[in-house]
Amino acid sequence: MDPVIKARSGRYHGLALENGTWVFRGVKFANCERWQRPVVVSAGEEEIDATVFGPPSDGGDPDCLNAVIYVNPESDAHNKAVYMWQYGSAQMGGNNAQHDFSNFVKKNPDIIVVCPNHRGHFFGSINLSSLSGYEEKKEIYDASQNLARLDLLACLKWIRENIGAFGGDPERVTIGGHSSGSNNCTCLMLMEEAHPYFKRAACQASFCADTSLQYPDTADIVSQELFKGLKITALEEALKTPAEAINEALKGVFARLMAGEQPFCDIEYKLFSPVIDQVVIFEDAFEKLAHGGMEGKELLIGNNTGEYDGQYERFMDDREVNSEKALDFTIAQNFGKLSDRGWNREHAKDIIREYYSHNALYGRDDFTAAMDLKNDLMLRCDSIIYANAMSRYAPVYMYLNDFGIDRLKGRRISHGSECALIARNFEKVPEEMRAGAERLSDLFAAFVRSGDPNTEALSVHWPPYTAEEPNTLLIDEEPHAEKGIRNEDLALLMPLLREWTII
User: Fold this and answer.
1) How many domains are there within the chain?
2) CATH number at residue 376
3) Which helix (H) or strand (E) element contains residue 491?
4) pLDDT tens, position by position, 432-456
5) Which pTM value belongs to this model?
C-alpha cells in the first residue's frame, strides 16, 4: 500500500518502492516569483500527489522549488536524522531525480534524505541593478544574486515545520551535497539566518572560497551581457521576458565564454557563483565563521584525488609532449594567481616553479602537477580554508577520496563520481569493490547520524582535523589517516586565497 503522510503543509501521497522504502516526489517547499525571495508554503489540508517528480530548476518554471524525500518505514522512530543533500550543477540548477537515495535509507532506516531543487543560472543569480526601475523596487529584488541559497534556506524552513510528520527530527539536520550543491551549503554556513536550521554539514568538493564567492560588480558584468543580448534596459521588460528567451540567451553567453571573448576572458569567477551582496552574504561572513560562527556544529569536508582530471583528457594522448599545454590550461583557468596578466603577476612564475619542484617528493610527472595545481586552487585549498577556520572551535573531519570505479580505468577519482557510491547506487560497482563502496557510504551515514564519521567498517581511527594537526583520511582500498596530504603544495598555495589573512 502506498504511503500517506499528513504534514503541516498537506497530506502527501507517496510511493512504496520495491526495496520496501518510501519516496515522496515533487514535494513543493516554497513558492517563488521571478527574482524574488522564496516563500515557504503555508499550512494546509490539501491532498497532494507526491508520486511524480516536480519540474526541474534550470528552465525558469515557477514550480521548480520541490524536493524528493526518501523514508524507510522499517523504523517507525520519530527522531530520525535528516540529510538535506543538494546535487551539483555549476549553479545551473537541474533535476533532483538524478540521484536515488532509496538504497541509502534502506541501509540506514534511521535517516531521512531530502533532495531539493534550487533556481539555476540567471533565474537563481542575477544582478538587476543596471536596469531602469530597479531602485524603486530594490526592496523586492535586492536578494536576486543569491536566490539559490535562499531557496535551500526555504527548504530548511519547510523541513523544520514538516519533517516530524515523516519521522524526522528537525533538530538533527545535516546539510550536504556535491560541487555547487556543496558550495551552497558552505554559503549557508556563512548565513547567520540559516544556522538555527541545521546541526552539521557534509561538503563534497566544495568550491567555497576565494574565486567562488564573487562581488556584485563581477556578477553585474555577466548580467549586463544577458540584457544586451535580449535588448533589455528596464526591470519591467526583464520581468516580462519569457523564460524560453532567457534560456536561449544563456546559450549565447556560454558560447562567448567558451570562445574566450570579452568580457568573460577577464572573469576568473565561476559564472553564477554566490555573491557577497551585503544582503544575503556579507563581507565579514567568513571572518565571523572563523571566530566561532559555527560553534556547536560539526563539519565533514573533502575532495577526490582527480577532481578535474577529465578536463585534461584531450591532452592525454601524449602526456610528456603535452605537459606544457596542460599547464597553459591550468594557468588560463587561474589567470589571476598564475599568469603574467593577473593580480599575482610578479610572483606567478615563482609559484609554478616551486610547485613543480615538489614533483620528485610526490612521485608525479609534470602533467600530473598541472592537474594537481588546478584541483588544489579550485577545490582542495577551499576545503582547507574552511577546515582551518572551523576547527578552531568545532569538530572537523577532512578526507581525500581515492576510491571509485575510475580506478578500473587507471584514473584518479573524478568530480562527482563518489555521489553514486554515497547514495548506494552500486549497479556499476564490481563485486570486488563492493566492500569499499559500502564503507564510503557508511562514513557519510555515520556523520549524518552522530557528527562522527568513524565506523567499525573503517578499521582505523579517523581523528578530527586541526590546522596544527591536519589529520586527513585518505580513502582508498585500505583507508588510513595522515597528518596532511601534499602539505608542501598546500602551504605554497594557501596564501593566494583572500580568506587566508583571516585565519
Assistant:
1) 2
2) 3.40.50.1820
3) helix 487-493
4) 999 999 999 999 999 999 999 999 8
5) 0.96
